[in-house]
Amino acid sequence: MTREILNIENLFVEYSNIRGKVKAVRGVNLKLYKGENLALIGESGSGKTTLGTAIIRLLPSSGYIKDGRIVYKGNGNEYDISKFSEKELRQFRWKEIAMVFQSALNSFNPVLKVWDQIYDTARAHGISNRNFVKERAISLLRYVQLDPERVINSYPHELSGGMRQRVLIAMSLLLEPKILILDEPTTALDILTQRNIIELLRTIKADMGLSMIFISHDLSLAAELADRVAVMYAGAIVELGSVEDIFYRPKHPYTLGLIKAVPTVTAGFRELYSIPGSPPDLINLTPGCKFAPRCEYKNSVCEKDEPMLVEVGQDHFVACFRHKEIGNGR
Amino acid sequence: MEDRAIIQLDHVSKSFTVRSGIFGGRKNMQVIGDLSLSIGRGEVLCLVGESGCGKTTTGKLIVGLIKPTSGRILFEGKDIWSMNNEEFKDYRKAVQIIHQDPYSSLNPVHRIYNILSAPLFRHGLVRNRSEAEEKVLDLLDRVDLTPPGDFIYKYPHQLSGGQRQRVAIARSLTLNPKFIVADEAVSMLDVSIRLSIIELLRRLKEEMNVTFLFITHDLAMAKYFGWEGRIAVMYLGRIVEIGPTPRVIENPLHPYTKALLMAIPEADPQVTRNKTPMKLRSLDIPSLLNLPPGCSFNPRCPFWIEGTCDKEVPDMYEPENDHYVSCFLFRGK
Amino acid sequence: MKSREIVKRIFWEPLVIISRDKAGLIGFIFLLSILLLSFVGPYFVKLDTEVKLDKIYQFPSREHILGTDNQGRDIFSQIVNGGRDVIIVAFLAGLISTLIAVSLGSLSAYAGGFTDTVIMFITEIILTIPQFPLLAVLAAFVRLTNPTMLAFIIGFLGWPALARAIRSQVLSIKERDYIEAARVLDLGRMHIIFSEILPNMLSYIVISLIMAMTGAVYSQVGLIILGLVPFYGHNWGLMIQLAWTRGAIFYKGSIFYILSPIIAIVLFQWSAVTFTRSLEGIFNPRLRAGE
Hints:
The complex is a heterotrimer.
Chain A: E1 4-17, E2 20-33, E3 37-41, H1 48-55, E4 63-74, E5 77-80, H2 86-92, E6 97-100, H3 114-124, H4 130-143, H5 148-152, H6 161-172, E7 179-183, H7 191-208, E8 211-216, H8 219-225, E9 228-233, E10 236-242, H9 243-248, H10 253-261, H11 300-304, E11 310-313, E12 316-318
Parallel strand pairs in A: 3-8, 3-9, 6-7, 7-8
Antiparallel strand pairs in A: 1-2, 1-4, 4-5, 9-10, 10-12, 11-12
Chain B: E1 5-19, E2 26-40, E3 44-48, H1 55-62, E4 70-75, E5 78-79, H2 85-94, E6 95-98, H3 112-122, H4 129-142, H5 161-173, E7 179-183, H6 191-208, E8 211-216, H7 219-225, E9 230-235, E10 238-244, H8 245-250, H9 255-263, H10 269-273, E11 317-320, E12 323-325
Helix pairs in contact in B: 3-4, 5-6
Chain C: H1 3-18, H2 22-39, H3 75-111, H4 113-128, H5 131-141, H6 147-157, H7 160-174, H8 177-184, H9 189-197, H10 202-225, H11 236-248, H12 255-283
Helix pairs in contact in C: 1-12, 2-3, 2-12, 3-4, 3-6, 3-7, 3-10, 3-12, 4-7, 5-6, 8-9, 10-11, 10-12, 11-12
């Protein structure tokens, strides 16, 4: 068994707004192993992005970790990220865990050239040797197949969406992190560019042996890159397993529904099914399984109690009372 | 085909002028170049392409939100921009649009009742409030917002994305349209919601005999929604390939279509990990301000013929019945 | 809709929303008190016009809660009676400039082209003229015999900045998908402007109206203090002018005479501005009660 590098224990994250408390992440337990690709899959409001930003403590100001631990294991030590001070966080982010945010354009300061942004990032994390940063930046930009001299002197708006995404990926690698979190890395990119980014991420993984967490609503990204997949619904993980288990042997009605709801282009024409209803209100959560109102397998127990994750196969976990009745794949 | 066409585009092009730089003059940006297209009554045509290919502009030209720079757009055989008032009114009622973003397509200050009843009153389809209420309830029922009484006096922000999109669809139905442009109508919605909206559109098409132009960047959705219809693939303002959906998907002819199909990530690990993407000559999409001469795909195309593809613009060839492609590889076939 | 529901929507819900923002609520309470004092107060507190030489510049007492002026008249009664004209002129002037700004701004943005160019040209000319000196010059030429006249002059000069702001708002709303949908549904230009675009700017327009009002308060009080507006009657501006020219220059004891109208004006302005905080919530259905 590969060694675990990150261990999220019983994590609760909330946001407060005018209407009340949004329970965005509710009791998540999740391990990340060294060198693996983990995909967090879910729809808007599933808590996947909240979970990702909580790991590096970059939650928006209205959000806070209510309970739980985020244990990072590195350099022979264990650190609880959720207890870090701002100063400790600065030393930790980018060096140990880096994140590439969704919407590549917004991640840049529009009035700064790419080089200034790279140098600012490096300095913010304690590296102020200009030559060192420049050398490293140039080699990384070349590594992500960009022309370093041109890119480094450009303003963000002068680059295409795919180029910006590659710059962000290069920047995230600046301090050689052990874990890379990527939030919707291919969303909003053209198909040919998506393919290019996917190939790039494969190369990075092979060369550097990082652990990666992909956050996406797009099942195909998980299908492309993930070793393991965690499916989130209403702030909790409802199914966790290997990519084959999730795509070919789903045991949670929601996972099954998602997979049956997504058409493929080249895999023949197959009948699709839609999931009725819409996701629950995260402020006024009803008791019981949060998926029950949309579930065709639900019974009276599902409406009373919330199921816990149970192991249904090797390293395959499902939070569903009726998992035995969910058909074997398609 | 021509005689039962509901919408025809006849050598349509559309340019915008943009200023470049502080001292630079105005530049012409051609978004649509010489586009001809005929859409038959009751048909589903999927217009597929990546961002900036001009598919949304094509949709806006068809619903008459913008005027073409040159060429004609015909509705039931008549040029929409030389119609008399009466004819133009009928065209306006008959051709509707469903937008991509259900959060900006509904006016936040109005209740659903007002959103749906305004066109009814304006065009004299109802005379008083009770008639309007009845009609609005009926529309909500038709788009599966049930019970409709729960929705009629809500504001858009009280509905989920999927529910809003249903309201937007109901609005497009208020004037009993013959033709609907669905511009990325499901791409902003959650995966689990998308399919139910697609099913709704498909049902409405059957029930109301509406013709659809389904604009999308998602080939899989186009395939699913338009299996019985046709797909047109756009690249930089031109249609490069058009034909019956199964044939375009299973036997793509244009190198660009092939490249897309070979690259597209799919929700099936075994299928998607075994793809061997086409090696393109360049990753960059040329700028609309500076289109390459000849075929606009030539700087990226691995099958590029020097001296031909970079000099002449290819015509539409028909190597298979009803399956057209704009590529010199198929000249004379 | 039943009448009870209408009452609920028009009166009760806004109150609930106002009460949510603490500062806005305080502003609202102050504003309401000042309005009551100025419009209802005069029926109870008669303006004291009797000269009482034995009571000149008295400090506040139970009899005269704000003291007395240079002729021994009660200051409080002057404050109560001096607000009405100031507020009416400010409201009228604000209303006029907002009306002009909204009409010209939205017409300019919606019509575009030549109309837009002409309207914006005129707007910019008026915008570059320094307001106060022009007001002063105008006031010297035009016989300002009544408050309405003054309101018109201030109003006609106050609209350009707002017109430009309205124009840019309309330009951005014009591009929204729901406006496109309305065009495709052939709902008509009037419907699109008045029923689709302007309601989205209602809170902005009302807030601008209040801001225009506060601006108009300063303009008119300034004109009165300078003695450029010889209109009759009694108001806070005139009080300041009298307190200044007849007292404050000479006597320390006139402090309550001059401070009272100043504080009244400042309180009015502050409460109006603070109250605008709550307005956003009233006109934005997303922020309405219980939804």
